[in-house]
Specification:
Strand content: over 45%
Order of helices and strands: EEEEEEEEEEEEEHEEEEEEE
Radius of gyration: 28 Å
Number of helices: 1
CATH class of the largest domain: Mainly Beta
CATH architecture of the largest domain: Sandwich
Shape: elongated
Helix content: under 10%
Distance between the termini: 85 Å
Structural class: mainly beta
Number of domains: 3
Number of strands: 20
Largest sheet: 4 strands, antiparallel
């Protein structure tokens, strides 16, 4: 007696909520187990199974300034945040400005540039490669009132790169607070000064990029320097 085998074929797929799969001449886009049975020429079963998991749609989210505002001055720097979510990675892009550094996956320190409109766009990506809708925030950048460009141009930091000492010169009689951050967004030192020329001792700083955040009573701007050994 001849015994003819039965056949069983299993396909396992994981798809994003906005995708579908074409299987056995049909489209499927709902989590579940699907079967199709055939009979071989020998009268035996030939079973096909699709085990499909649809990843839930990622939550929509918004971008918010850490300190509420809808407009800034030229060269002003601000922090922007999205909801904390350990299950995704956020990807940031900026028009008419740039990310100085990422404070965390869900928080960015951004410097704006020229008068007009600045735009931040952020989307999330999860472990399955699924992408969220893109969140967007528009910020007005002004050239009247407090002039961030004027403050930015008034401050000169040199030499760059620096080794042991860093000189800060300003053409304005203003009191400044300078906070120095490393490339990881960690604060290294905060100083107050009001002289037109100040010498900073950076002999103990490790090699790498640093960001000097200058805050006056009016505005906050940032300068980037490199320390070399």
């Amino acid at each position: 007696m001849t015994v003819h085998p039965a056949y069983y074929y299993l396909e396992v797929d994981t798809l994003c909520s906005y995708d579908s799969i074409y299987w056995q001449r049909e489209f499927f886009s709902v989590t579940g187990n699907y079967f199709n049975n055939y009979t071989t020429i020998n009268g035996c079963d030939s079973i096909f199974e699709l085990d499909l998991f649809m990843v839930p749609e990622l939550d929509t989210f918004t971008i918010q300034p850490e300190i509420p505002h809808d407009s800034v001055a030229m060269y002003q720097t601000e922090t922007y945040v999205v909801p904390h979510n350990e299950d995704v990675n956020y990807f940031w892009s900026v028009e008419n400005g740039y990310v100085i550094y990422m404070i965390s996956n869900d928080s960015a320190y951004i410097q704006w540039e020229y008068p007009g409109t600045g735009i931040i766009e952020v989307y999330a990506l999860n472990q399955y490669g699924c992408i969220s809708d893109t969140a967007k925030l528009s910020i007005g950048i002004g050239n009247t009132g407090i002039d961030g460009r004027d403050i930015y141009d008034a401050i000169n930091v040199f030499p760059n790169p620096a080794k042991d000492q860093l000189y800060v010169e300003t053409s304005k009689d203003k009191a400044y607070q300078v906070s120095i951050y490393n490339s990881m967004g960690q604060i290294v030192e905060t100083l107050q000064f009001s002289e037109r020329k100040t010498v900073l001792n950076v002999n103990d700083y490790a090699s790498g990029l640093y960001y000097l955040h200058f805050r006056t009573s009016d505005v906050l701007i940032s300068k980037k320097i490199r320390i070399v050994r």
